[in-house]
Write the structure tokens for this entry.
Amino acid sequence: MSADKVDINVDFAGIRLENPVVTASGTCGYADELADFMDIGELGGFITKSITLNPRKGNPTPRIVETDAGMLNAIGLANIGLEKFIEEKLPIIENLSVPVFVNVAGESINDYVAVVERLAGEDVISGIELNISCPNVKAGGITFGTDPKQVEKITKAVKKAAGAKTLIVKLTPAVTDIAVTARAAVEAGADALSLVNTFTAMVIDIESQRPFLANRTGGLSGPAIKPIAVYLVNKVYSEVAKRAGVPILGGGGIRTAADAIEFIIGGATAVAVGTATFIEPDAAVRIVEGIKEYCVRKNVSNIKDLTGKLK
Amino acid sequence: MVESTKKACIATVIDNDAIKRRFGRLTIQLEGEAARCFEQVKPGQFAQIRLSEAALPHPDHITNDLADIACRQIILRRPFSFCNVTVDSPTRARVEILYCVLGPGTLRMTTLSKGDKISIIGPLGNGFSVPAGKKLALLVAGGMGAPPLQHMAAYLKADFPKVRTFAFVGAKTLGDLPFTVEGLESGKPVITEFAKAGAESHIATDDGSAGFRGFVTECLTDWLKANKPAPDETIIYSCGPEPMLAEVARLAAQYEIDCQVSMERMMACGIGLCQSCAVECKVGGKDKTVYKLCCKDGPVFDAREVVFERR
């Protein structure tokens, strides 16, 4: 099969992505920074850094530390806030030819709803990614994502606020059974699921005998978490998402096309590239090419035939 | 589209010399468009170098203090400033990087040899600038803060020949100075690399093994007291450990001299995506502060705006 015969576009909860590769929230800014290094139009989609109702300074430094085959971050949702986002970043986003999803975070359900209601009126936005899984803030974030009742409550409220916009709920791996929170989100109206967010972790400086990060703990990302993320995506796919017909945006340590394909075979309709972008700013578009090559080699004419095909 | 001034590119190693016990000087060559990006480079700017594919030295050549850390699988790039950049034709640039072997990244750097290809992203950030009317530049370096100031001395000599330049270079001990030191017997030792760049140097070592015994800031204080430079015509450029920068900033404020400091933070991407490298800065008087990014807004900041960390 030749490369031009391979169809790698996907239907992601009613939104057509030209290919299954999107940039993960918090690793690609608001698109302006990355434009120096690649054509964002070559991506399947784009997910912005988290937006909160009010601007957030974020945590003190150090905010990151490298670990074996990974890194911890505790940025603390530093962002410019909803108003400035609409004023300064939406005009940039407007020029992008790919679907854009805005990641939304907050400290209370009211916060989330206020932001989503406002964004729901913006035509240039394809959807909302609901961040209820950030491990690095004191209020909100992960506290919503670990309790199925809270997941249900917030998803319902935000779904209503989102109107016609696609709602992706981003799940945390910090639960005993991720299928339970996934089911709660789907039953409350999530159009898609995104997993996984980072794993709470700690690095200790043995000289000072203190945690290395100012926030004490951070979220582990990078190749170190990939096998766990693949397992969780496959678990959510087979126990919840497949039956419900809800697509999964899978990610966690994806660095290469081979990594991305593992997630797709495991059940992801689309994949999110995160930490790899820090190392190679154009990592995501390189992965698109690699996925095509794999399809040619494996005689897969349509990428949809690969999703969830785990034997 | 505005032509980008930073690039991800492949550089060729020209030279990699070991200096004293734990330093190295890496010379790389860039060609074509990548070289053009370095035409307008300013001292204090930096590049993100990918070292994860470089080999570790043979275990016999790894000192005991680095043996544990050498085992770490690195993924992130490492930021380095330049000690010298020469653009010998519009399409060929040579960049020199002075490094200290401290961890798993710089250990790998030692094994690079002539002809090797490495991936770099740069030049990044904002370098030092020379305001109008300055006739005297004081370069104040501590430890590995010296390389970009060597670059600054050469830049001043070439582009601002009327500016007199003095360098104050501090280290724990003579062996920690990654430079050629002449005139040790005379009691007034100077650094050859700075002399070549037209800067008269003053060395300060904690143990008095070369030059002034004590901190470089004490050496600078004595010089300021003795020479009373005209504040309007003088500027201080500084790079080194943060407590030293804080003291230099304090002295600059006391003598009402302009001062630019080059800051250092842990960073993942170097291009404004990860938000790791926050530097707390004062805004609009009072006690209001914001976090700026070391990689994008810096690494060079006006000393008056920085809230220095004291950890």
Q: What stands out?
A: Residues 135 and 163 of chain B are 4 Å apart (CA to CA). The longest strand of chain B covers residues 7-19. Chain B has two domains: 7-124, 136-263. The first helix of chain B runs from residue 33 to 37.
